Amino acid sequence: MTRSPLSRHIVPAAAAGIAVVLLGVTLAFRTTPAAARPGDPTFADDVAPIFYKNCVPCHHDGGMAPFSLVEYDTAAAHVDQMRGAVEQGDMPPWHAAGPRGVFVNDRRLADADKATILRWIDSGMKPGDLTHLPPKPEFPTGWVLGEPDAILTMPDSFTVPAAGKVDYQYFQIKTPFTDERWIQSIEVRPTARAVVHHVLVYAYTPPIPQASATPPVPRPAGAPAFQPTLIRNRAWSATPKDEPRDDSLHGPPRVLGAVIGVYVPGTSTIEFPKGTALRLRPGTVLTFQMHYTAHGHEMTDRTSVGFHFASAPPAEEVFVTQFINGAFTLPAGAKDVAVPAEIGAGRPIKIWGILPHTHLRGTRWQYTLVQPDSSRQVVLDVPHYDFNWQTYYMFATPLEVPAGSKLESMAWYDNSATNKHNPDPTVDVHWGDQTWNEMQYTSMIYSVARPKATPGVH
Predict the structure, then answer these.
(1) How many CA atoms lie within 13 A of 423 on its CB side?
(2) What DSSP string describes 103-141?
(3) What are the E-state strand segments in 162-230?
(4) How far apart are alpha carbons 12 and 4 in whole angstroms?
């Protein structure tokens, strides 16, 4: 397993853009400029402000998109791709259904902005007075969120061969901090992005001997001493019994801990909501799980993780966890296979963000909150899951989950020949690390809800 207002909680690695080269698709039309009329939109006054707000974090020189939308000339040269992507809602990339305002990092263009872009194209792509352009955005050349307070890097570089399967690689780093730190944001930065499919950063804190334990830093009000245990009802092991665990030199360490950072297509940073932060304890060991894919040329990578620290303990401590179903079978040729999983809460929690993850056969996701009285509410619907644009969906208002509730996930898969992304529709598919296998995996950011005050009790 790969950046948003409200302090930019989640910023997709390839942030919102207007144009994209769709895999295997060539847009088969070319816009014929119409005669320009007074009052038509211009790039300088009408279109550039939309691009600068929504698109150029990705579409700039040196960005992850294939071309820049900062300047008029480069924008006008790509209207063929732009028109189709805007009309169809492919760009900016957003795959959840439902009204705006539910998720703080919703990247969809407003209807009025879409209409302005399309009118600009149809009316002849007038540049306008380019001296009226808004100030051009500046982008860091390295870290997306700016220079971190602390950077930890893989102890060794890894050379990815030009071809062939590459087993998952694991690299461990002991954090150098002697005191507790509160993390406000996390960014994962590979040096060879072309061959890095995903990075998971795990954090494990070994028990501290009582004699050498240091006085704890004060916790946020209502925070538990340790990460609370969630009740896993149907979250099966990802290591089937008939598949031996890889404990070789390059296999995973026996203790990984919780995932605190991710780099997946579409997401490379996590910024925790205002008033919250993630605790990093002294002695914590980070493990980088590296999924490399050969890309036709030998390349060397040495990935780093960067932390920005909060200046003070937060009002609420957040945790990152995951729940999975690792015991499914997708029959060869099957078109619409549903695979469930669920996680329950033994005490009241608040869910801040959800990231669904499948591979090339995954087509859609849905999450349903089931209350203790069995009432049900769909809280996230992703009808068009895109493996190339994976998103941490961050709630504008955290999802309140009472004790005794459960969050159900359902993922659907297409293992048929009609799925143009399917590596091989003739084989049954199970859980596996590589992209030609599959996963049913959810990452979740949550906090423990504070106990509600009882009237008359002080």
Answers:
(1) 12
(2) BTT--PPPHHHHHHHHHHHHTT-----GGGPPPPP---S
(3) 169-174, 181-189, 196-204
(4) 8
- Of the two residues 60 and 23, the one the predictor is more confident about is 60
Q: In 3D, which of 389, 371, 445, 381 has the Cα closest to residue 409?
A: 381
Burial of 140 (0-12, 13-18, 19+ CB in 10 A): exposed
Nearest-5° Cα angle at 144, 140 to 147: 70
CA–CA dist 19, 365 (Å, integer):
25
**Beta bridge pairs of residue 277:** 317
CB-side exposure of 357: number of CA atoms within 13 Å? Answer: 31
Query: From CA 112, how far away is CA 379, in angstroms rounded?
Result: 27
Contact between 446 and 316 (Cβ < 8 Å): no
pLDDT mean over 52-62 = 82
User: Which among 208, 174, 203 is positioned nearest to 319, based on CA atoms?
Assistant: 203
Q: Residue 380, SS3?
A: strand
C-alpha distances in Å from residue 160, one per residue of 155, 288, 451? 16, 16, 50
Reference 236, options 329, 361, 355; nearest CA is 329
Q: At how many degrees (to 10) do helices 111-122 and 79-88 cross?
A: 150
The pLDDT value recorded for residue 254 is 62
Q: Can you say whether the dihedral through the CA atoms of 239, 324, 321, 433 is positive or negative?
A: positive
pLDDT the model gives residue 6 = 32
CB 149 within 8 A of CB 134: no
Instruction: Fill in the amino acid letter for 54.
Output: N
Give the C-alpha separation, 128 to 72, whole Å.
Answer: 10
Q: How far is CA 413 from CA 49, 313, 433, in A?
A: 39, 42, 16
Does residue 171 carry a pLDDT above 50? yes
In the chain, count H helices and then E strands.
4, 21
Q: How far apart are CA 369 and CA 405, in angstroms?
A: 7
Q: How would CATH label the architecture of 150-208+217-448?
A: Sandwich (2.60)
Domain boundaries, the chain: 10-132, 150-208+217-448
